[in-house]
Structure formats: C-alpha cells, structure tokens
Amino acid sequence: MCGRYSLSEPEHCIHKLTGFSRGKTIEPNFNICPGTHVPALLGMEEKKPILSLLQWGLIPFWAKENKTLPSLINARVETITEKPSFRTPFRYRRCLLPADGFFEWKKENREKIPYFISLKNKNPFFFAGIWDQWVSEQGIEKQTFAILTTKAKGHISNIHERMPVIFSGSKNKDWLNPEINSPKKVQGILETSTEISFEINRVSKYVNNPRNNGIECITSVTA
Fold this sequence. Notes:
CATH topology: hypothetical protein yedk fold
CATH class: Alpha Beta
Low-confidence stretches: none
Helix content: 10-25%
CATH architecture: Alpha-Beta Complex
Distance between the termini: 24 Å
CATH superfamily: SOS response associated peptidase-like
Number of helices: 4
Strand content: 35-45%
Mean pLDDT: 91
Structural class: mainly beta
C-alpha cells in the first residue's frame, strides 16, 4: 500500500511538473498522511492546469451519511474495475498527485524499519489517483482521492509487496484525458507505464509519528 508520502517543495514541484505556479502558498509537508488536504491535478483547461486541494481518503459519492463513511486511501489496479467505490472515478474522475517521495516500512525481526523512496534523478513525480465528490444532507461538499497501487517492482519488493503507480511525461496527459473513459483503454494506460529508477534510503523512526512533519522525516540514517 501507500500510506505516507512527501511534498517537501510544493511550489517548485508543481511548477516543474506542470510549467505553472498555483499562485498560492502551499506549505511543505514531509509526512503526508491520510486525511490531509493536498494539491491535485484534475486536468487541463485552455492549456493551463486545473489544480485543487483534495482530502486523502476517497469517500464514494453514493456513501450514506447515516453510516460510517468509508475512507479508502488506496485502489489496487488489479481489481479497480470490480469495486463499486472505484469503478466510476476510474473512468471519469482521474487525477495526479505531485510528490517527491513516499515511505514504506520493512519488517525486520520484531521491528518495522521506515524507508524513503524517491526517483534516482531526484525529480518530482505524479502518483496516479482517482477522486470523487461526496455531498452531505446539509450540502457540505467533500472532494477526496485514493492513490492507485500495483505490485512492487525491483528493490522496492524487498521492502513491501505493493507500490504506488507513478506517471511521468506523456502518460500524464492520457491519464487526465476525459475522452479516454472505457475501462479497457484506461487500463491500457496503466499497463504501458514506463520503467522508473528509484533510490531507497533508510530514514529515522521519527516519521512513524503522523504528527511529526520536518525534514528529519526524509533524511537518510545509518542502521
């Protein structure tokens, strides 16, 4: 799964990925957790990015208010078209989440050791996501998202069996294209994603606490 990630230089990251600035100050977040509102790219309009703040943890539009609202942080690509919570967003409400790295924990003896995973070239990147809009009986709107995950590749599989789907380049445009909405064609975008080289570094257990949010979260440490 993907349960934590980092956006340590949000303005720089968004500008580098889209060529545009959001025009508003976004605070750095070294330890993004479910429930956090983060910037998301929903599409393009007149060649400019449509950026919005979404809450991590997808709530399906059909969820009943008198029940405990589900909060789905990940969507497995292998079964995404089979799940009622994900089917419609997968076809019509896809998004990209800017990031510069994510965390996974490896079980070693009785401990869980945190690792920070980033691109080898240190560039920011996008997670592939889906989003939905839920409206309460009082008319309160919530826009939420889930990150797509797939089987871990390369050395990441030594830490965890799953990893987020990461896009770059031409795949970004295809993923956000509303005219691509048949499940088969959308799945085709995922299946043709390019190979990416990662850098994996052990980090301090400081990141284990969701309340901790500083550069210490992504700073490499020795065993």
